[in-house]
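Hello Y.,

Per our agreement to keep a running log of every chain we model this quarter, I'm adding this entry. I've kept the format consistent with earlier entries: sequence first, then predicted structure.
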Amino acid sequence: MKESSKVLIGLGMGMVAGGLVGYFLASDQGKEFQRKTKKQLKTLEKDVRKSVKNNVATATQKLSDGTETAQTWAKDVAETVKNKISSTSDKVENEVDDLKNSFETGAERARRKIEDKGNLANEIIEKS
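Predicted structure for the entry above:
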């Protein structure tokens, strides 16, 4: 069969189908079908709008809850870091104070030993 014949057959079948659908929609049954379809579409539209509205509200609430959770977590982490830094700073200050005291104690002992050795040297010199 030629390509042009196929096109004409397809065109003819489309016209017949379109005519039947047009006839059906113009009939009383077709008008009833259109009325029911419009009613169902309106109901479907309302359901979709309600569903979208509910989903938006749910998503907004979940986003808000997630934001609060993230803020709380960030605040807790910041507080923990602040406490660790403060604790570490206190420990470092205590270590520095201990080292300073140890150094001063050692220096004082060394001064006394030097003074004692100096006194001993003076005594030896005076005796000689």
